[in-house]
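Rotation project, supervised by the postdoc (A.L.). Task for the rotation student: set up a whole-complex structure prediction and record inputs and outputs verbatim in this book. Inputs entered:
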Amino acid sequence: MIRPILRYGERPLHERAADVTAFDDDLQRLIDDMIETMYAAPGIGLAANQIGVLRRVFVVDLSIGQNANDLIVMVNPAFVEREGTQLEEEGCLSAPGFNATVVRPARAVLAGLDRHGEQQTVEASGLLARAFQHEMDHLDGILFVDRLRGIKRELIVRKIQKLRKTGKW
Ligand code: NI
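Outputs recorded:
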């Protein structure tokens, strides 16, 4: 089922998600919904916070459903390694219409569980490393807008506040 994606300002996006403890039907349904919602958006990543569920789960698929091998489901993930930096423009399904350059690791190794609770480790560089850091931030209640500084951040936040006030957000 496609779920509504929350937008900047809605509380679950700004809160830390809790560890998944049960690999039950509810979790399977949540993950299926997240994948469907990500593909429908369309986007290359989605964290559970974005559909209002404060659980440490995210999905990433750089091919947006074109290549089954590209789908990554991460439960209770943690970085094992992060190195280097990259500076690229990015956006977020929870802040539609906005983009900004964000500093991200050039390379990252992420360990966590798959949807059945099995251990998995994924090595990433480039766009995938960027996506991992973006989704990990979501699980900690941080959006890319929060990673910006000074005037850049203020400009986006002010525009969003204006949109919210007029009911266009
Ligand atoms: Ni996002």
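Student's summary: The mean pLDDT is 97.
Supervisor addendum: Residues 92-94, 134, 138 surround nickel (II) ion (CB under 6 Å).
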